[in-house]
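Q&A log
Question type: sequence-to-structure
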Amino acid sequence: MTPNHDTIELPVPDGARPPVALVGAGAPMLAEQVSAWFGTNKVLDRVDLSMPARTVTALIGPSGCGKSTFIRTLNRTHELVHKAALSGRVLLDGQDVYAPTTRPMEVRRRIGMVFQKPNPFPAMTIAENVLSGPKLTGMKVQSKDDLVEECLTKAGLWKEVRNRLKTPGGALSGGQQQRLCIARSLAVRPEVLLMDEPCSALDPTSSRRIEETISELVEDVTIVIVTHNMQQAHRVSDQCAFFLADENEPGRIIETGPTQQIFDAPADERTKDYIHGVFG
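Response status: OK
Response body:
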């Protein structure tokens, strides 16, 4: 299936009018009938999902069912891929992030992203990594030292690195690098934090520390996490959305609901089979 006339061809340029600033703190997000393509290949089909403010939403499902594509539609990083296209709407605190008058850079500032593989800037110190976002966006910072300490503390890293802030961020362990990336995302004051399999490259101890960080951060921000670890999804999330793609068909949500309900009494037999390892 190819995109029709209702599809937004990406990238979407800024309009001639002044950009609209997105506002909110720990803001709710809503996806309405979101479909996505890479060229003529449709990979996501009419996804509806409410992500309440200051909760953790886990996206679960086997590889290739569109979870990572979906999470990238939420902050307009999907459009950075060649020949990417999208239809539907994504609302942050009731405002359409794909509106012509909304700047993509502003969207990505308000909706931060932590990727699967830790990616600190290797030529920058730990402190410079944290401050890179505010510097790039031109955000005014009253005290850089205070901001560095605050963000590293929220990311659960301050006590481990406070005496070596001027050393390279790339010299940290894998788990520490991932928490540094979280701190870097927090420095621009996002309302939402997207996490695409943030623990897949980490050992169990580092993964548990990231989970603890998620539990602490959700008091201030809305979190959406992609994970293949069912135990992790059960531990950290408030609600789950189960994605599935049939053979030669795009991914879609099969079932969504409170995490305890999804794990204890799923409505769809396919959800039960996936959670219990029958497939995937």
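Response note: The radius of gyration is 19 Å.
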